[in-house]
Write a structure and sequence with these properties.
Elements: H1 2-25, H2 53-65, H3 78-98, E1 108-109, H4 112-123, H5 129-132, H6 153-171, E2 179-184, E3 202-212, E4 215-224, E5 239-245, E6 248-255, H7 258-266, H8 268-278, E7 280-285, E8 288-297, E9 327-340, H9 345-350, H10 371-386, H11 392-407, H12 412-425, H13 427-430, E10 431-432, E11 445-447, H14 450-461, H15 468-475, H16 482-494, H17 500-509, H18 530-549, E12 562-565, H19 567-573, E13 584-587, H20 600-605, H21 614-624, H22 652-659, H23 663-677, E14 691-692, E15 695-696, E16 701-702, E17 708-709, H24 712-721, H25 723-739, H26 748-759, H27 765-774, H28 776-779, E18 780-782
Antiparallel strand pairs: 1-10, 2-9, 3-8, 4-7, 4-9, 5-6, 5-8, 11-18, 12-13, 14-15, 16-17
Helix pairs in contact: 2-3, 6-12, 7-8, 10-11, 10-12, 11-12, 14-15, 16-27, 21-23, 25-26, 25-27, 26-27
């Protein structure tokens, strides 16, 4: 009894104890008078924390990261700060468990990536969504946030046009007219290496995967790179250029040598037009996706092209026309001549039955025999597209579209095409609806239906529509059972479609999508080219994939002893013994390259074209690793002064110190800059260095939480020393992406539960994903309090 009394007394004393900590260390700035950051804690009620949860969640975040009290101000020991944070969290989490608020998101339009994946899984048809639809707006770091996925009249027209084009392509409509598709190589693509997918014994070149809509004849044109004077690279020597289809040679063209070189020099335009004609082939092709390639055959190893070159890239100088020919573009035209629908994967997916002998068109008198088959086909398509069993009303509408086309001088396939076109433009396909139960009062909490849960799962893990197994389970109301749900999550993670967690989630979270627009200054970094850019991106993708596929501890993203490189990236890093374009797993030799912070992709997207940016790197870590993004910069911030000629070069640190002498700038810079300076030994494209512009690099500094660092290893050690911070940020990002809405203060108890449960399983990647799926925001929904309009 005495022990119990002591416990009760201790609990009763907690509010006053924690209030005393806040009064001593926080109210100095966060008083009613100063309200620093718009926050006052002077009269906070520590006996009733939950009503102030929105404010307290901001306090908790700062405490857990170690950002408060700020550097230079009196600060208690870590145990005291942790005790305050734990007290606040416990009070809020208990109230949330008793009365959860899962929030709600509005009607959710499929974004461009989800639309493409849905078409792939519905019709077994790969489409170029970027050619059909505009890019989507972003919010909360992702482009799948429901609130910003609006529809304008012009966008609806694009969806209607896409439904028309896709349905014709899927059905193999014989009325498809010849069209032209042009694939261009990036200007900075170096083609002096073998490219994956091209035939062995070739150099560089270009490979594209093109969807041929019908059986027919197609014209394939290859155009070689030429400069502004119409002069082509490699014409001083004779080369053989191979054009191939699915690895089979279509044509080989000899170009270059003395005669061609003289002809080009005398009349570049005429020579180029003549060579373009020689690099054109007309060939019959079966409908479907085929690989079209053009590349230069390797010459003897004794040739001069194997001599050591001063740069790793071949596009250093646009006026340099020596070396090997480079493919600039591949153009495919067609279909021509007699065409047929062909036997494509999409047609096999659509036509589950046939109303007659293959090729026989039924007469109007016998059209009634077609209707049962049409019903079966359209029912299956609607079930997958609408993510639920098709209703009688659905089928009545679809069959009316089928019949209207069939009766207008159309055949059976044209009728199916009309029904499919309606499906692809239907709101039931383009939007994710989650209707609230009519009998519930406004603001009531309810579990989402199993069919809605199936869609939430599939769009989270696959960025696509649920498959038949998910819809079957949901239709029988079995999906919400914990054992069934876990089995489905593990099945879906093992499926290759979960690669979208890398392409759509990780690439946005880590800013990898920005790499395609990174263009380092070629005077400063003459070796940078598209080959290196793509290798950087693929390293991080393979690295993230290994964490996911091997179900590793997610902290390995920050600190592990391996990475993935090919020869191009290995040479960039100074790793020996790696040859060829294939990526392979290699150990990380030094401490500086361990984890994401040592990867060139991250270091490049957080730099400027001609130099590093401690500010951008610090901001990236604060935002993506620590979950505490800095405030936006004030207006009219002056540019950083560069070193002038004839003066003593100053290090970037010295120039930054002068830059932040302005008190308005100093507040944020003193938080961001020390983080960025810890990575300053990496240049703007991720090379390791010890000096910058003649000045020695000093990576040491004191972080916002008082920790001393002197380089990437110490910075990484600080980041992993509080695993719940990084894991919490990753949980927030995953939950945001899974829900398709930004998180609010009332979502944080769910995030903390995900982290606690994952901690009991050594923070395995699957435990984090499973925690998101089992969370109340994912499985439940709050009914709207007002009538929503869209």
């Amino acid at each position: 009894m005495a022990l119990l009394a002591e416990v009760v007394a201790s609990l009763q004393a907690q509010p006053q104890k924690q209030k005393a900590v806040v009064d001593q260390y926080c109210v100095t700035c966060h008083s009613d008078k100063l309200r620093t950051g718009g926050l006052s804690l002077q009269n906070a009620d520590f006996n009733d924390i939950p009503p102030g949860a929105e404010t307290w969640e901001k306090v908790i975040r700062k405490l857990r990261v170690g950002a408060m009290p700020p550097q230079g101000m009196p600060r208690p020991d870590a145990a005291t700060l942790d005790g305050l944070a734990s007290y606040l969290e416990t009070a809020i989490d208990r109230a949330s468990a008793a009365s959860p608020n899962p929030g709600r998101s509005g009607m959710h339009r499929l974004n461009r990536a989800e639309y493409a994946h849905a078409i792939r899984d519905l019709l077994d048809l790969e489409i170029d969504a970027a050619a059909l639809l505009p890019p989507d707006d972003e919010s909360s770091g992702f482009d799948n946030i429901a609130d910003v996925l609006k529809v304008s009249p012009s966008l609806m027209e694009r969806y209607l046009a896409a439904s028309w084009n896709i349905s014709r392509l899927a059905i193999g409509d014989r009325r498809i007219v010849p069209s032209t598709a042009t694939y261009r190589a990036r200007p900075d693509l170096s083609q002096d290496q073998h490219i994956d997918g091209l035939p062995l014994g070739t150099r560089g070149g270009m490979l594209v995967r093109h969807n041929f809509p019908l059986d027919g004849e197609y014209v394939i044109k290859v155009r070689l790179w030429r400069n502004t004077f119409d002069l082509m690279r490699g014409m001083e020597d004779s080369h053989q250029i191979e054009i191939s289809l699915d690895g089979a040679r279509l044509q080989i063209v000899t170009a270059g040598g003395r005669e061609d070189f003289v002809s080009m020099a005398q009349n570049p335009g005429s020579f180029g037009a003549a060579l373009d004609q020689r690099l054109t082939v007309r060939v019959p092709v079966k409908a479907g996706v085929h690989a079209v390639a053009a590349a230069t055959l390797l010459r003897s190893h004794a040739s001069k092209d194997d001599l050591i070159k001063p740069f790793l890239r071949t596009t250093v100088d646009g006026l340099d026309i020596t070396g090997d020919p480079s493919v600039d573009r591949i153009t495919i035209e067609g279909p021509f001549a007699e065409t047929r629908s062909g036997d494509t994967a999409a047609r096999r997916r659509v036509f589950l039955c046939r109303p007659s002998v293959a090729g026989q068109v039924l007469s109007p008198a016998n059209q009634g025999d077609e209707v049962p088959c049409a019903r079966r086909i359209l029912s299956a398509l609607a079930r997958r597209a609408y993510r639920r069993p098709a209703t009688d009303g659905d089928l009545e509408t679809l069959l009316s579209f089928y019949q209207r086309r069939r009766n207008s001088n159309g055949d059976f396939e044209m009728g199916i095409e009309a029904g499919l076109q309606y499906i692809l433009a239907s709101p039931e396909f383009l939007y994710r609806f989650e209707p609230d139960p009519a009998e519930l009062a406004p603001g009531a909490i309810h579990q989402v239906t199993d069919l809605a849960l199936a869609s939430r799962l599939s769009f989270f893990l696959w960025s696509s529509i649920p498959d038949d197994q998910l819809v079957d389970l949901a239709s029988k109301n079995k999906l919400h059972h914990p054992a069934v749900l876990e089995q489905q999550v593990r099945r879906m993670l093992a499926d290759s479609r979960s690669d979208t967690l890398i392409a759509d989630f990780a690439e946005q979270w880590l800013f990898l999508r920005n790499l395609k627009s990174s263009a380092p200054n070629l005077d400063t970094f003459p070796d940078f080219d598209d080959n290196l850019r793509q290798a950087m991106k693929q390293e991080t993708e393979l690295f993230f994939s290994s964490i996911l596929r091997e179900d590793r501890n997610v902290l390995d993203l920050l600190d592990t002893d391996y990475t993935f490189v090919n020869e191009r990236l290995a040479r960039h890093y100074g790793i020996s013994g790696v040859y060829g374009s294939q990526f392979r797993r290699v150990p990380v030799a030094g401490q500086e390259r361990r984890g994401l912070l040592g990867q060139a992709s991250i270091l490049t997207v957080t730099s400027y074209a001609n130099r590093t940016s401690p500010v951008q790197r610090g901001k990236w870590i604060l935002t993506n690793i620590l979950g505490s993004p800095p405030l936006p910069p004030p207006p009219n911030v002056p540019e950083l002064k560069e070193n002038g000629e004839g003066s003593k070069p100053l290090s970037l640190r010295e120039r930054m110190e002068a830059h932040r002498a302005n008190a308005v700038c100093a507040g944020c810079h003193k938080v961001m800059d020390p983080i960025g300076f810890a990575l300053e030994n990496f240049d703007a494209v991720g090379h390791w260095r010890t000096s910058d512009d003649g000045a020695r690099i000093d990576p040491s500094g004191t972080l916002f939480n008082g920790a001393r660092v002197n380089g990437p290893a110490a910075l990484r050690q600080m980041l992993v020393s509080r695993p719940e911070v990084f894991v919490g940020v990753m949980a927030e990002k995953l939950l945001t992406y899974a829900l398709g809405r930004g998180l609010e203060y009332y979502d944080m108890p769910a995030v903390r539960k995900i982290v606690r449960d994952a901690g009991n399983q050594n923070f395995h990647c699957s435990s984090l994903v499973m925690g998101v799926v089992e969370s109340s925001p994912f499985e439940m929904r709050k009914k709207a309090t007002t009538v929503e309009s869209y």
